Amino acid sequence: MDDLLREFLTETSESIAQIDVELVKLEQNPNNPELLSSIFRLVHTIKGTCGFLGLPRLEHLAHAGENVLGKFRDGELPVTPLAVSLILKSIDTIKTLLAVLEATQAEAPGNDEELIAELNAMAEGHLDHVATVSAPKEVHMDDAPVFPANVPDEHGFVPVPASETGKAQTASAPAPDAKKQEVKPMEELGTKESAVASQSIRVSVDQLENLMVIASELVLTRNQLMQILRSQKDSAFATPLQRLNHVTSELQEGVMKTRMQPIGNAWSKLPRVVRDLSLELGKKINLQMVGAETELDRQVLELIKDPLTHMVRNSADHGIEVPADRMQAGKQETGTILLNAYHEGGHIVIEVSDDGKGLAISRIKTKAVQSGLATEADLANMTDQQIMQFIFKPGFSTATKVTAVSGRGVGMDVVKTNIEKIGGTVDLQSTEGKGSRFLIKIPLTLAIVSALIVECAGERFAIPQICVVELVHASAHSEYHVERINNTPVLRLRNRLLPLVSLRRTLKLGEDKDSADTAFIVVIQVGSANFGIIVDRVFDTEEIVVKPVSPILRHIELFSGNTILGDGSVVMILDPNGVATRVGEIHAAESSAAKQNARQAQGRTDGKQSLLLFRACGAAPKAVPLSLVARLEEIDRKTVEYSDNKPVVQYRGKLMPLVSIDVDAKMAGEGTQPILVFSDQERSMGLIVDEIIDIVEDRINVDLSAQRPGFLGSAIVVGKATDVIDTGHYLAQAYQDWFGKEQEGAFGEDSLHRVLLVDDSPFFRNLLAPLLTVAGYTVTTADNAADALKLQEEGSVFDVIVSDIEMPGMNGFDFAAAVRREGGLWSGVPFIALSSHATPRDIERGRMVGFTDYVAKFNREALLATLQQTLSSVKVSA
Amino acid sequence: MKSCLIVDDSRVIRKVARQIFDTLGFSCEEAEDGKVAHAACLKKMPDVILLDWNMPVMNGIEFLRALRREPGGQTPVVVFCTTENDLNHIQEALTSGANEYIMKPFDADIVRSKLSQLGVIEA
Lengths: 878, 123
Hints:
The complex is a heterodimer. By secondary structure, chain A is α+β, with helices and mostly antiparallel strands. Helix content of chain A is 41%, strand content 26%. Chain A has six domains: 3-200, Up-down Bundle (Four Helix Bundle (Hemerythrin (Met), subunit A)); 204-261, Orthogonal Bundle (Helix Hairpins); 263-443, 2-Layer Sandwich (Heat Shock Protein 90), CATH 3.30.565.10; 448-588, CATH 2.40.50.180; 607-734, CATH 2.40.50.180; 754-877, Rossmann fold. Residues 128-198, 400-409, 585-606 and 737-750 of chain A have low confidence and may be disordered. Chain B has a single domain, classed as 3-Layer(aba) Sandwich (Rossmann fold), CATH 3.40.50. Helix content of chain B is 41%, strand content 21%. Chain B has helices at residues 11-23, 34-43, 60-69, 89-95, 108-117; strands at residues 2-7, 26-31, 48-51, 77-82, 100-103. The chains are: A alpha+beta, B alpha/beta.
């Protein structure tokens, strides 16, 4: 390409980018003479330069635009949104023309008579307003091959400050500023750039890349030398190598700096995008940008530019409401989109937040079901946070109507993929009605990353530090150890089940070592998924220079690259994303673990439950709700002791009674014995089982015909007849023996408190009744509200009523209202409601009808505590 | 060798002008605004100054007035660049001390004829 033409394209695109920004500013601040003259000058310069290069079409258009701008400047024309739209339209046309010029090196044929006529009409002040109302909509920003604004790589150049150190730059910038003010106050405008421009040279990006590669090689060699030096004390090379070390670091830093660009470059297009959108959508949007000067590698900058634009567009389109809705919601008419960039520990964090309506969980749910991404049952078990993640799935859009703005075929999935491709993460927080916040965390550069070096089966691997959440040292004797559920290793970490991946098995480096051995677990976070990678050793973190995987290995998704360590050895860099997808079952395990967490957190009981299947006392599988099981343990049979002829084991510094389902079963022989640990407050009980089979999700319809104590009955679980055991029965066995005295102490002085338990589910009645009995209450049960009320008529007296809310026939609210009726026998009896989901509205409603308290259904501890509290407060008040 | 200072905020125009002045046998300096040009002149007064009107920081006319007030600031021959939009500025430029004006776009022939009219180069 002609040198001059290239220069022209670079210069003009920079000017255009500046005009874009300044025009938007102008619209908000129409009387700023400095902005006006700056814009005028830029267009004027474009026109002037076109003349030299023989580009009549561009020249004419720029000329017409300049005319209008001249009238603005001289105050002959008011700056109206309409006029600005028209100017922007001409700028867009210029961009398109420039793009053609760049591609073909010749001006596009044709003319812009219509636009020029419009501009001239505007300049003469008699523009037919109707004619241009459509102006902003005709702006096809994305369809036209938009000329890159201030982006150098398209033509291969990037502006580089002649002096590379930041100090020199900052030192040179203020000086001219200070002098400038002496000259004349009106010249304060857009001066910084040009002042620096004289100290800048243009260097092709290729050259910089090349420099970077060479510097990286140097760093690696330096690392090797340093490694050698460490093993040789008192070497004559020590001092010069130390010096080399420093110089290399400085060189590397310097070269890195040349690749750095302020993130503001990626943002420069956004005010314009938001401005166009707000016009198009009839919204008032204020775009705030904080930290535009934050620098990052231009390669990264390029890659995040589109995702960012998309996210801002999304916020404007889906997030911010129209002014009327905002007023109604008690917000300011003008919505705010905030872009915030800052450095955080070797990464750059970009925050895109809006104060709009937030994500509509219910809509996401509907859409997820519609598009077959999840079933209703799946959704019921998910937390809101998990449901929100659906917006990152391919083909997902919650917009009820596809506007011209969204529905461009790019979804959040592409955003997420693009960001993850460069080793970044996207996090999402949203409150319905309050707004959404996206947090993007990306590495400063792709060339050098901080990585954790680990070893597995004698091989070393690097794991990018950005994904590493923490390291856990697991051993049989420590608090953390690797457990197995259905042969899948898991780690119990702060009350969450963390699925584990054995690197050894995944990479087929050999068989797993005995789980009793010590292992290091690298806890990884990829998106919203957490998992642990089991490795043999952990070394340290190192800054590594990423080298791409050679093509022959590129299809292996487990690796994202390789590097050379200080000792000269080549190691592979693990791609946590790849590991996560490769180990498919991790998703199943992860989601079921997550589901279980969700269940425990919220106590949801809609139909399906997690059941732990095990074998004990005969071949028929037994089941127990997983939520009742505190832990699964394997104990050494030799450690079983006998106290009062009952088996006990020392467990976490206490004696834990062991109960067997089969009364005659003997704990004999060697080896390990699997047990289920049930915990209640401080006390634990171990249920001896033969084998733990699986954890399944199923609905249980207990057939209550079981006659044997300890069994609720049989149910069909995953197609097999399964005995559902009565946990309460075994708890009672252990408790009566071991804790009976304590219980008496708690309530001993009073006559036994009488509890009426109303629940339609036999399962819950059978679970809770023994529990309450054990805790020292006299329990009467009723399976519906009508039966309970009959008891009232019969004159039964209770100290407290515990009732479910969701019941067929009369529900808990109506039941409470009936109980509270004036003059009723039970009108003064405390009423505790059990519920699986209590929204604040439910709680309010419950209070209105007279609930004394609310307890989540699965929370037995809370129930007991509430009962005790309620009864004692009744006693005090009585 | 005669010296020339090219003052224009557009790199493209500076490049074009430089090519022209090179062929005419000048040694060229460049400045992207009036302020930089002013500093350059204080260091060494050039023989010819090709001056743009519209520039950031300090525009052409301000530079010209400042220059002519400097000691020795009368010597350089100042050729003002203008476009048809700025026609009304020509008078202002000439009264402020410009020796000649030249319309954009210009080429080597136009520059040569202007300069020979001014006696800076031989015809």
